[in-house]
Amino acid sequence: MVSTSTPPSTGVWHHVAYTYDGTTHKLYLDGAVVSTSTAAPNAHAVTRAQLGAYNSGSSFNGLLDDIRIYNAPLTATQVATLAAGNASDGASQSASAQLTRVSATSSSNEAANPNPQSTIDGNMSSRWASGATDNEWLYVDLGSVKTVTEVKINWESAYGKNYTIDVSNDHVNWTTIKTVTNGDGGTDDWTGLSGSGRYVRMHGSLRGTGNGYSIWEMNVYGY
Ligand SMILES: [Ca+2]
Ligand SMILES: [Ca+2]
User: Fold this and answer.
1) Residue at 147 is within a domain
2) Which ligand sits nearest to residue 155's alpha carbon?
3) Are 46 and 117 within one domain?
4) Which segment, 15-19, 49-53, 104-108, is predicted with the most confidence on average?
């Protein structure tokens, strides 16, 4: 149905995905679409399916690992997320996606930028800032317990140099899933995380400037 005449490079792992939504076949290589088709599906009755070999028995010369078959077509974003290696292995694995943040809570607020909700409004022109001390935090509420695979913080110039990313089911007992030391501000995009919780916290222990901690947006990804 779909194919590409450009073979993947050898000697490295590649991510290959095929999706069909009832109309369009799509072939992805390393998270990007390389071929599409709207040809009618093959009408042969399937009594046996093979991965990595023709029916004649000619086999693909390489290794296959982490093979998954889904009962619905993944979106381009989901394929790209999987190709980027942002999802951990697991039998009941779902593709990671940006999670809805229902509210944000902070340890303190600077008078000029006092609203922690400014870190979850999707607006890169609105920000929150803490008071100007080292031990400050902000957490977001995901509404229910989620698996957390990635946290992305967009810092204003007042960034966190040392901080942890923590998860919790009750915003009282926290588990650290990432420890950052000597961070450089700007965008801090921590992928490959493994955690579970309803609340996700940035807990600062050392500021990068004399100001507090200031965040434009704090996004959480998982499933
Ligand atoms: Ca914002
Ligand atoms: Ca950074």
Assistant:
1) yes
2) 2
3) no
4) 104-108
Of the bound ligands, which one is closest to the alpha carbon of residue 163?
2
Could you list the residue range(s) of the whole structural domain that residue 112 is in?
98-222
Separation of CA 160 and ligand 2 centre (Å): 10
Q: Are 216 and 136 in the same domain?
A: yes
User: How far, in Å, is the centroid of ligand 1 from the Cα of 145?
Assistant: 23
Give residue 57's region: left, alpha or beta (phi > 0; psi -120 to 50): left
CA of 194 to the centre of ligand 2 (A): 20
For 160-217, how does the pLDDT look when each residue is reduced to its tens digit (9 = 90+)? 999 999 999 999 999 999 999 999 999 999 999 999 999 999 999 999 999 999 999 9
Q: 72-123 pLDDT, tens per residue? A: 888 888 888 888 876 543 334 457 899 999 999 999 999 999 999 999 999 9
Boundary of a domain, candidates 84, 111, 130: 84
Ligand 2 geometric centre to CA of 220 (Å)? 16
Ligand 1 centroid, distance to 123 Cα (angstroms):
4
Question: Any residues with CB less than 8 A from the CB of 145 and at least 6 apart, and which?
Answer: 169, 196, 197, 198
Q: How far is the CA of 3 from the centre of ligand 2 (A)?
A: 39
Please give the tally of structural domains in the chain. 2
Above 80 in pLDDT, residue 23? yes
CA of 94 to the centre of ligand 2 (A): 28
User: Which residues are 176's β-sheet partners?
Assistant: 166
pLDDT of 92: 43
Q: How far is the CA of 188 from the centre of ligand 1 (A)?
A: 15
